[in-house]
Amino acid sequence: MDIFKKCYDYKLADEAKEAGIYPYFHELTSKQDTEVEMEGIHQIMIGSNNYLGLTSHPEVVEASKKATLDFGTGVSGSRFLNGTISMHVELEKRLAKFVGMEEATIFSSGFQSNLGIISAIAGRNDIIFSDKENHASIYDGMKLSYAEVVRYNHNDMQDLEKKILLTKKKLSEKGIQKGMIIITDGVFSMTGDVADLPNIIRLAKKYDIRVMVDDAHGLGVTGKNGKGTHEHYNLMNEVDIVMGTFSKSLASLGGYVASNKEVINFIRHNSRPYIFSAAIPPSNTAAALKALDILEKEPQRVENLRIISDYMRGKLKESGLKIKDSNASTPIIPIYTFTPKRTMLACNILFKRGVYVNPVLPPATPPGECLIRTSYTATHTKDQMDRAVVKIVEVLNELKDYNE
Ligand code: PMP
After folding, report:
1. In 322-392, at which residue ranges do the beta strands (DSSP E only) sit?
2. Which of 60, 136, 183, 404 lies at a C-alpha separation of 20 to 30 Å from 12?
3. What is the pLDDT of residue 276?
4. Is 135's C-beta closer than 6 angstroms to any atom of ligand 1?
5. Nearest to 209 by CA among 144, 150, 293, 258
6. Whole-number pLDDT of residue 363
């Protein structure tokens, strides 16, 4: 059988295009900002992860330009060999200090960070307890690790404890011991929920298990100074591994892992996605460094993000739309649109009327619980929010009786 058969048989995207509801790959013709140009339409952008509004900040852009002039367009190799520049090392030190860990090291993307961290730390003889709503990159990192994976219901600490006890019982019956780690998103990417870190840490201590938090959506967002989920809960020294990305609050591309010096040393010498892949270019490194500078100097951006997110959450609730409520003030606000077709249609009509939002469809949600994921930026204005709400309410009301 031809291995390409599945490609020739794949019709879903074309069908959506023909029906005029295909919501992907829209082209930006401006900077990523609170308002953007896409395909000739001026849009209020409420679908980006530019949480602190730094992607077009003049100092970030300037630092990135200067790095290209000073160091060239790429590093042409892995961090491990010829590809380390002084700025990489500086960024690692600054990140470790910011998130309150001993050391950090950086990867070429957030996705690659999870592949590289998890596959280095966990192996065939280990067990990973993983929240069912964890990000795809955690799932793929776990696959790459060959460790046994025990999934627990989303943020359900009773289920987690039950699964830990069951696992421990099986191991003791067999008379074997295994390394164990709990992995969770800090802020969940699709729902904006915050992990129940106090209880995860309590269970981890009780059963002698390590904890890793993916704070891709926590850095610059949660905690008074935007240090992440562990700052939000005042648990700065309790998490074993924190990972994050530069593609959201830090206005760039790349990822990092922070932990104690032994763990980071091990990852640097044993992680295949780290060793066998080229390091991030000077321009991205400089942009992340400058964005981190601004985050440290201007913690009010984190507060502004909270204010604008709360304002929008309040407005959407007032409007009577069904939103997925969060257990904390985060800038991710999902609005239920239920069916896949209705979701795609809503996104497309909103796009035509100048509001960019993202569709969340199966397998990211169960089929009847599709959403539009809206996300906010510290530099959004209340006027932009008011205009966006009017359009969202208008479009979702028009689609109220649409049953497909
Ligand atoms: N972890 C989480 C929780 C994410 O949401 C994402 C990206 N959306 C990643 C990791 C991967 O990060 P990146 O896009 O920077 O590769």
Report:
1. 332-338, 355-356, 358-360, 370-375
2. 136
3. 97
4. yes
5. 150
6. 86
From the candidates 227, 248, 315, 324, give the one annotated as an active-site residue. 248
Look at residues 113, 330, 363, 338 and name the one whose alpha carbon lies nearest to residue 241: 113
Question: Could you say which DSSP state residue 367 is in?
Answer: G
Question: Using CA atoms, how far apart are residues 274 and 30, in angstroms rounded to an integer?
Answer: 32
Token pair in block for residue 332: 């991710």
How far from chain centre, in Å, is Cα 288?
16
pLDDT of residue 88: 98
Q: How far apart are the first and last CA of the chain?
A: 35
Q: Which among 171, 245, 180 has a CA at the least distance from the CA of 206?
A: 180
Question: Which residues partner with 194 through β-bridges?
Answer: 187
DSSP per residue, 24-93: S-PPB-S-SSSEEEETTEEEEE-S---TTS-TT-HHHHHHHHHHHHHH-S---SBTTTTT--HHHHHHHH
362 CA to centre of ligand 1 in angstroms: 18
pLDDT of residue 309: 97
pLDDT averaged per 10 residues, the chain (length 404): 97 92 95 97 98 97 98 96 97 98 98 98 98 97 98 98 98 97 96 96 98 98 97 97 98 98 98 97 98 98 97 95 90 95 95 97 88 97 98 95 77
Alpha-carbon gap, residue 135 to 190, rounded angstroms: 9
Residue-level pLDDT at 401: 79
Contact 247 CB / ligand 1 (< 6 Å): yes
Q: Identify the CA nearest to 401 among candidates 339, 323, 359, 348.
A: 339
